[in-house]
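Researcher: I'd like a structural prediction for the single chain below. Treat it as a standalone chain; there are no partners to consider.
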Amino acid sequence: MPIKHAAIKALRKSKKNAVTNKRAKESLKDLYKKTLKAIEAGDEKAKELVKQTLKATDKMFGRKIMKKNTVARKKSRLMAKFNKKFIAKQKIALSLSGLFFLN
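Model: Treating it as a single chain, here is the predicted structure.
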């Protein structure tokens, strides 16, 4: 146990921040899972969920809950999955309409 008053206060603050950070990470994790399910289902609300997830992920870095490279990796993987599912759909639709030619 800390002896000095400042150390006691720092420990109290550290515990409080740990709870807050854990709650924030869990909410991001839930949002991430929800977004992945929407992407896999090909749901139209996936685009909006991706926006929300990217914004929440950036906030994690801004609040120093996650490191920069962790945030970048999560965003990159999410966008790769989104683009794989939805951009491919758009290319097929455009190629069928004759506006886009696949090489």
